[in-house]
Design a protein that fits this description.
The chain is globular. The protein has one domain: Rossmann fold (3-Layer(aba) Sandwich). It contains eleven helices and eight strands. It has an eight-stranded mixed β-sheet with strand order 3-2-1-4-5-6-7-8, sandwiched between helices. It has helices at residues 4-8, 10-26, 53-64, 76-90, 105-118, 145-167, 202-222, 248-261, 265-268, 270-277, 305-319; strands at 44-48, 68-73, 95-99, 124-127, 171-176, 228-233, 287-289, 295-296. α6 packs parallel to α7 (202-222) and α7 crosses α11. The structure holds 2-acetamido-2-deoxy-beta-D-glucopyranose (NAG). This is Retinol dehydrogenase 11.
Length: 327
């Protein structure tokens, strides 16, 4: 039998399309922020990396719920643009911009000091800022760039703010991790740039996402009983806004593929919002939530408590937390 003419038959195309559609519709029904009517009036939230993508969508939702939302962004220009967009779309004037570069521990400390001075309480902290595909490089503080940006910065920030958050209890901290953590490994030397020269650019990213989960779980154990809960989430594979810059045809194709396989930033924001605002996640701590808002176990490595404790101590040492005393 001739196979080639058979494979060329349009029936195959329809068959594949049908199959993809079925797979798409099979996607588990997730918690939906549009059906959640929790108000955050009188609450204060910080979202790092809020100028674009998931961070902006999370901030937008929190602002709609009438929270006072602090956008923590690296660039004043891009942060200001997001701030204006969120204010005009939600009508919430209590949206503020504070500069924060999570790759710099000095910037994290300065940011935290401003927050501790300005804010009477802090109810939600979303550690969303992160970088992927950064080339191997060292920061001025002697830390590796991806690990500093994605793990050490959020680690230090959360530690500096937990005092205020426990005074504001119940309060929630969310770390935006990724399913990529499954391919990550823990080598404490990575924090200072050891053994990552010449690796693929997604390797440090994957490792830092593993650290996010371990750090969240260790923090949850340390804050047990304080009323501060700590969770980590997978946002799913998200189509970034970068495609906005392409022509209509490319965008169309991307959106078509995206409909089947990827998530929009709005959909990517759902797992973070579930942990930060939902009634279902009240009291949920030391847990990992997947992109369908389901409680799942992270990789075996991520559940290793002794290694998590070692990572915590090495991180304290790397950011100078043990010796740091606020002015
Ligand atoms: C990083 O994780 C992704 C997703 O699991 C995987 O496809 C990729 O191969 C990983 N990269 C490395 C260097 O392990």
């Amino acid at each position: 039998m001739e196979l080639l003419p058979l494979l060329n038959h349009p029936g195959w195309f329809c068959c594949c399309l049908g199959l993809a559609l079925i797979l798409r519709l099979q996607r588990r029904k997730s918690w939906d922020p549009r059906n959640c009517h929790v108000s955050l009036a009188g609450k204060t939230a910080i979202v790092t990396g809020a100028n674009t993508g998931i961070g902006k969508c999370v901030a937008m939702d929190l602002a709609r719920r009438k929270a006072r939302v602090i956008l923590a962004c690296r660039s004043r220009g891009r942060g200001q643009k997001a701030l204006e967009e969120i204010r005009s779309q939600t009508g919430n004037k209590e949206v503020l911009l504070e500069l924060l570069d999570t790759s710099s521990m000095a910037s994290v400390r300065a940011f935290a000091e401003r927050i501790l001075q300005q804010e009477k309480h802090l109810d939600i902290l979303i550690n969303n800022a992160g970088a992927s595909g950064l080339p191997y490089s060292m920061t001025a503080e002697g830390l590796e760039n991806t690990f500093a940006t994605n793990h050490l910065g959020p680690f230090l920030l959360s530690n500096l703010l937990t005092g205020l958050m426990s005074k504001s209890a119940p309060s929630r901290i969310v770390f935006v991790s990724s399913f990529n953590h499954k391919k990550g490994e823990i080598h404490l030397g990575h924090l200072r740039g050891q053994n990552i020269q010449g690796v693929r650019p997604d390797y440090p990213y994957n490792c830092s996402k593993l650290m996010n989960i371990m750090c969240a779980n260790e923090m949850a154990r340390r804050l047990h009983g304080s009323g501060v809960t700590v969770t980590s989430v997978d946002p799913g594979i998200v189509v970034t806004e970068a495609i906005r810059n392409y022509g209509i045809f490319i965008r169309l194709i991307f959106n078509l593929i995206g409909f089947f396989f990827f998530r929009t930033p709005q959909q990517g924001a759902v797992s973070s919002l579930f942990c930060a605002v939902s009634e279902e996640a009240e009291g949920l701590t030391g847990k990992y939530i997947d992109c369908d808002c389901q409680l799942v176990l992270p990789s075996a490595g991520a559940q290793d408590r002794p290694v998590s404790r070692k990572l915590w101590e090495a991180s304290e040492e790397a950011v100078g937390l043990a010796t740091y005393s606020p002015k």
